[in-house]
Amino acid sequence: MIIIYKTIGSKLELKEAEKDCWINVINPTKNETKKLISDFGVPVELINDILDVDERPRIEHDDGWTLFIFRIPVEVKNNGVPFTTIPLGVFISKDSILTLCSQDNEVLSIANTTKFSDNINFILHLFLRSGSLYLKYLKQINQLTTLIESDLEKSVKNKELNKLLKMEKCLVYFITSIKANEIVLTKLRSTRKITTEINEDLIEEALIENKQALEMAQIYSNIQSSMMNAFASVISNNLNVIMKKLTLISILLMIPTLVASIFGMNVPNNMEDSTWALPSIILGTLIISSISVMLFRKNKWF
Fold it and tell me: Do 141 and 82 contact (CB within 8 A), yes or no?
């Protein structure tokens, strides 16, 4: 999908590109990719780099254009892992600015609601928006983790542990991407190839937001790593408790079985002709079983 806006932050769409327009490209088809190469002069290798889900953030300069690639958080549905990160490319040329991403995302939504004075100001707001989204999704991950914890406390299966592992996976994606984004922000601040004056307050705000997201992700990751080790032991302990209870129940059931087996033998026991033989045996069995239960409870085995 290719949408051309008159300016960054404008809701006015154009059919054809013009000077100082914004070209927003989401998951382009083969024909749209050819159009990007032929009409807008975007090198094919850069398109492939941005659409590669494993592409690392970086800044590239060439005659007439500058490319910014950074990783943004996205929500994933029906994939087990609720959140991941993907590359977002911002291609700046003399006549226009082009954004390219493999899927629709919340980061670019700010561009349709806010006017920007220049391209660098626009990129800094994208970084700032990205940092805010990282914080938002980290809070959601923490909430999901809390729900999983409550299930894990009484679980003897690996299902909840697998869910916790997926949360840990999200945090690893976030930490790796945020660190790489911070390097790009630092390079943007120090580069001499950008002639536009950089808003120091805005870039400082973006760096603070990025660092806050990184610190929060690292804290959550450390907590989850400790929790996974602890809950693995909890699951093992819960299983041991269940096995212990089953063993005690088996012992209690063995008592009436043993008594019935002894008196069921085809040998004389002086009770063959007694009317009270069966009630006496049942009563004796109940008494022995009750004493066993009392002993188990006294020793806190039950």
Answer: yes
DSSP code string of 6-75 = SSTT---EESS--TTEEEEEES--HHHHHHHHHHS---HHHHHHHH-TTPPPEEEEETTEEEEEEEEEEE
Mention every residue, 6+ apart, whose C-beta is less than 8 A from residue 221.
168, 171, 172, 175
**Mean pLDDT of the region 14-27:** 79
Q: How far is CA 157 from the centre of its chain?
A: 21
Looking at the predicted structure, is the pLDDT value of residue 288 above 70?
A: yes
Q: Which domains does the chain have, with CATH numbers?
A: 2-238 (3.30.460.20), 239-298 (no CATH)
Instruction: Supply the pTM of this predicted model.
Output: 0.72
Phi, psi of 96 (to 5 degrees): -160, 175
pLDDT, tens only, 46-95? 888 888 888 888 888 777 778 888 898 888 877 678 888 989 888 887 77
Q: Is the dihedral of CA 134, 57, 84, 154 positive or negative?
A: negative
**What pLDDT, on the 0 to 100 scale, is given for residue 108?**
79
Whole-number Å distance between alpha carbons of 181 and 198: 17
Q: How far apart are alpha carbons 245 and 242 in whole angstroms? A: 5
Cβ count near 275 (within 10 Å): 7
Please choose, from the candidates 105, 97, 101, the residue with its C-alpha nearest in 3D space to the C-alpha of residue 89.
101
C-alpha 69/C-alpha 50 separation (Å) is 7
Model confidence pLDDT, tens digit, residues 131-180:
889 999 999 888 888 877 777 666 556 677 777 788 888 888 899 999 99
